[in-house]
Amino acid sequence: MNSMSPSLSRWSRFRDSYLLYSFKRDLIAQLSLVIFILLLAAAVLAPWLAPTNPYDLAQIDLLASELPPFWIEGSDDAYLLGTDAQGRDLLSTILYGARVSLIIGFGAVALQATLGVCFGLLAGYLGGRIDAFLMRLADIQLSFSTLMVAIVVGALVKAIFGGDTFGAYAVPLLVLIIGLAEWPQYARTVRASVLAEKSKEYVDAARVMGLPSRRIMFRHILPNTLSPIFVISTVQVANAIISEAALSFLGLGMPETQPSLGSLIKSGFDYLQSGSWWITLIPGAALVVLVLVINLLGDWLRDVLNPRLYKG
Amino acid sequence: MSVADAASPLLEIRGLEKHFSLSGDFLEQLQFQGGRLVRRQEYVHAINGVDLEIQRGEALCVVGESGCGKSTVARTVMGLLRPSAGEIRYQGQRIDDLSTQALLPYRRRMQMIFQNPYASLNPRMTIQQTLEEPIRLHHPDWNRQAVEEKVQEVMTSVGIASDWGTRYGHEFSGGQRQRIAIARALAVDPEFIVADEPISALDVSIQAQVLNLLMEARHERQLTYLFITHDLAVVEHFGTRVAVMYLGRVCEIADTATLFSRPRHPYTQALMSAIPRLEDDRPQHIRLEGEVPTPVHLPAGCVFHGRCAHADERCRREIPSLIATDDGSRVACHAVEEGRLD
After folding, report:
1. N or C: which end of chain A has fewer CB within 10 A?
2. What is the pLDDT of residues A123-132, one digit of tens each?
């Protein structure tokens, strides 16, 4: 590293960084990012991009149900990817569904990260009984699979408040369930990095200065543990999307009326045997591509930020 | 006793002990022994009863080999570790049992310089941020301009250019980083500085620069030092008094000149004879037999008796305490006390 160069602005620092350098050389990462941004943009702009609004019952034509996609005989040009059993345009429904899936994915990860980072910092920095308590709590949480917790909670809420209420609050509820179930992933990773950072002398220097623990944790230690947090965040977004899809497939996720990718797959599943394979397979392919590109980006990020491969 | 000893010391350490548990948490301590469940705890005895006074204005060097507890003394004095027993007084006020909040006024008066300049600067903070942080914490009423002027002042006084402020720690060499770390310690105008081997991680060519910087700061700011080192050449150059530690105990304290001209404790004598010298008229190198005992199972009596040529029955039984000798040094040795040795 050149020690005598004049001070750099944030942008030129980024332009010279190893992150950008390795990104420029990694075709898979570039391709993944492009696809991810396209999917994200399509999902965010769904109300303007989609030919029809699948939430609007007035636009649904039951007579046009189960139409095949354009490359198959008997398709209708108005419905590019065909229609589902209720006559909703599949392309529009996928765009809206991807939006729901991404909202739940990012929302759940934001919740997980907040909880996990706070608990991990506390456990790692304070140690002792607080550490033991929080980590046993994490062990207990991890011993139940996410899906099982989600099924139990989802089923209980559905039974107590009824399907309509459940449908109305499905998005925040799913964010809450998936977010609460997966915080130990963050807490453990953050705790491990905090333990490594805590023994470094800059933390001692901050303590000798007299800084309060909270400031040492959030201003000194947290910025130095961000790399692993970024890496698990990408993987966790993909995981949360998959969890949501699985729950929806089981009928405990998003209702039919405002489908996510998972509930779309489920709604088409009944028609798979009768030849209308596109209702399941096209949203399925969209889900696979979405999760795959996120995971590939995560893999790339993990390789770049791994201090054993690159020390920076 | 000299006149300086009569005045009240700046820092006083009494009967300081620090043990580190080796046995993990409660469940890991339980063991089956002869069919019964027993709780077993093992400790590393890093310091076992250290008494030191540091007078205002002096530079007390603590020397000893690796693992003798000299860094633990420094970290306990600074409140980074809680002592297992004993007390630490700063100008007569006990400081070892204070909370973080109650300790804050003392933090301004005592600062620390660390061994490894590559780890002691936060890699995500610029030099400006690093230096501003202690000033803002201890002078919350200062305005922006006053803080910046203070940063400029300490940067100039340790010889770092004022335009380095926007850069990060990793952009500097070891010696430059150690200057920044010294600037951080000086930023709050302390009167007492604990330096834990501040030059041992640096290049030999840089060591003298940083050592001179510390000596200049001592004269300009009337600083008092507790200087931890294993380098006897540094001690001779820098220290006004020297404490020699062995296995968590102080075995001899003396003025630097006295200690170097006439070491009394058998361990100090062996240590001194190990300094490479150009002249050839020195007595032969004293070779110590065996190894330093483990600090987990301390020997009974004098900690040095197993390797001491002058040890007798009393040394194996009774722990020697520091006793003043005729030339002002204090030595923890039965042989010296009884006059068996010099």
Report:
1. N
2. 999 988 899 9
